Amino acid sequence: MRFIFRHILLAFLCLLCVHGLYAQESGSESNPCIETMSAEQRNLLPSVEEGKIIFNTTSGCLNYYQNKRWRVFCEEKKNVDQNVVYDEKTGRLKYMMNGQWYEFDIVGTPVQTTTAEEKPETDESTNTVADSRITDECQTKPTRAYAGRDLVGFDRVELEGNEPLNGKAFWQILKGEGGQFVDSTVPNTTFAGIQGTTYVLRYNIYTKCDTFFDEALIRIRPPCDPEPSISFAGIDQLNVTEAYLSANNPKSGKGSWIIVSGLGGKFDNPINPRTRFTGREGETYILRWLIRNECGVTQDDVIIKIKPACSPVPDVAYAGENQIDVENCMLVSNNPKKGTGKWSITEGGKGRFEQVDSTHTRFIGMPGKKYVLRWTVSTKCGSNTDEVEVKFSASCPDEFYDTRDGTKYHGIRLAGECWMKENLRYRPEELKNYCYDELNYYCNEYGGLYPWETAMNHENKESSRGLCPKGWHVPSDAEWQHLIDSSTYAPKELLMGGLTDFDVPMGGSRYSNGKYFNRGEYAYYWSSSSGKNENTAWNRYFPNKSNTPDHHATNITHSFSVRCVKDDD
């Protein structure tokens, strides 16, 4: 479209020139219509009359003097047939292309001024023509033109121009002989050409204010089998730190990426349609996905814009060490030099920071609750986070009463959990339970002996309450193991008189045949964990003369002691 306006301007100047010749013939002292001189000679003219036209041999352009300024008009020769006619009755310029006339209004006197050595400006980044016909009255810019994908066809193709919201559209042939549009003013018109010919088509959208254009490459060629798959490069990605591309995987042909424009970009794998692309911060890239085989090539482009660098980048966040089984929690995070820090709760629910933006602050949570706390360091450029796990110890009473029979028990905190200090002594009438050798005073000293189903109160779920007081449960085999592994002292310190005050008594056991064994030598405790089959469950036993407590999957009809653990609050 660029050459159209330059011819229009030249035609307009010729009209002014004719007017000048007419004035000369009428007795005016005006200079001849066009003189030839250099820029230096032009600038040395003592006086210049309005309307004077010269050919500037320095720039190779026509110069026209108007409003006390020289205006510059340059013509580029184009290999396109054209015909321009000025209609004096309508004041319009008519332009013929491919046998069809297009009309243009001459809006008024030029408002853009240039020096003698300047040429009309062209904005190559947006494919627009700097049109000297634009006036202050011009307000409606045309829709930006998009010619669609480059296409390949055997004898014809359907073009993919966009529908203009403002302005009118038309197609033109820039390169290639024998091509024809069904209707050159329709954006998605059909174009037919000669096989073996490659055409360059330009799609124009114009108003009286301006013109936008875009170009498409169309190849008309003989049939070939197999045809390369139509290329699709994916959608544009703007303001990204890196791009994962999404081109189509060709069924026919091999695909490869190239960089059309942009510096410093890199593909992880240029033959992978979904490869990762990285580039320089702030750079915009045009990437092309090519699909080739022996029959030809198809291509499509995608725009990738890498996000500009941002400063300051926030410091790395550090939330401190995990705190497990604590009664009080003092958080200690890093003090960022770049950015501001803030605490938040990501898991655990209800809790409170004394100072949510302090690097050293106390966190108040619920006893027995586990929390995941996040320390976030932020700037305008983003944020970094780190998390710390905090688990509060469950509350553990010094003493409490079983409301079912009034028995008093004591609590002791070990390995982050609250355990009963004594063996369970509750004896429900409806469930099987025993005292060693059927003597009640042994129940007072060692607690009761219970078959597993009684200890679990016929529940079959790990860590169930079972026969324990309300708010307590039968420990799992894992809880027993945690108690032993986490003890500050050797396991023997869990026995009667040991440093832990856990005071395991050697209460013995009752076998399913009704016989009692090992009082004073072994202590046996049920866990709530089922054993290797439905007839067994895991028990924990402590020998009096050994430092190696162990566990076994035992017949559930045997009777052992029970020690309870407090539920999390």
Tell me the total number of β-strands: 42
Structural category is: mainly beta
Taken together, the total number of domains comes to 5
Tell me the radius of gyration: 46 Å
The level of helicity is: under 10%
- Which parts are unreliable, with pLDDT below 50 for 5 consecutive residues or more? 1-33, 76-83, 105-137
Distance between the termini: 79 Å
Distinct helical segment count = 5
Mean pLDDT: 83
The main β sheet shows up as: 4 strands, mixed
Report on the structure:
With 569 residues, the chain is mainly beta. The chain folds into 5 domains: 2-129, no CATH class; 151-220, Immunoglobulin-like (Sandwich); 237-306, Sandwich (Immunoglobulin-like), CATH 2.60.40.10; 323-392, Sandwich (Immunoglobulin-like), CATH 2.60.40; 399-566, no CATH class. The protein has 5 helices and 42 strands. The strands form 14 sheets. A 4-stranded mixed beta sheet has the order 1-2-3-4. A 4-stranded mixed beta sheet has the order 10-16-15-12, with no helix packed on it. The protein is elongated, with a radius of gyration of 46 Å. The chain starts with a helix and ends with a strand.
